[in-house]
Known about the structure:
heterodimer; A: mainly beta; B: mainly beta; four-stranded antiparallel beta sheet; about 0% helix; about 50% strand
Amino acid sequence: GDSVTQMEGPVTLSEEAFLTINCTYTATGYPSLFWYVQYPGEGLQLLLKATKADDKGSNKGFEATYRKETTSFHLEKGSVQVSDSAVYFCALNYTGGGNKLTFGTGTQLKVEL
Amino acid sequence: DGGITQSPKYLFRKEGQNVTLSCEQNLNHDAMYWYRQDPGQGLRLIYYSQIVNDFQKGDIAEGYSVSREKKESFPLTVTSAQKNPTAFYLCASSMGAGPYYEQYFGPGTRLTVT
């Protein structure tokens, strides 16, 4: 079945450092890919998405490119801030029909001054 | 403001009791979902509904039940048959059930069963 694999956390960075969170997927067909962010004690917010190969999703300085050849959707940001500290989830839609998301286990990011 | 409301934020129950978690949306979305989140794990789908009066089991439906009598409401009942009910429960909705529709999440309900 479909699955998403994320790098394990926590990832600890200094403010203004470059961020990469790796995400790879296994899916039949052509899924849409998503990054969600969860701040402490809150629900998930959609950060960005890409619906076909080579699409680049971007939002709030974060970017991710849908790479079909490597089945990857790595999240990047050029300069992180303390306010970016959160848990980041990579997800794909269920290609069997409907809109059922399959999530990775999440990567916790801690940004320090 | 449009959004998804889940109440209460924290819920405590004794083992053996059924408990119902509320989820309401005023986004006029057709599809609604329930997920469970456990520490160190991703979200797992419990149930979903694409239209009123219809719902399907997700990956971990055992011990849970839902209803969808109104478009804006999708309550989840955690029954006494659920072996490990303590978790963070998230409700979501999307405009449609197709693969390109974004899911919007509520703030979640943290259920503790002792």
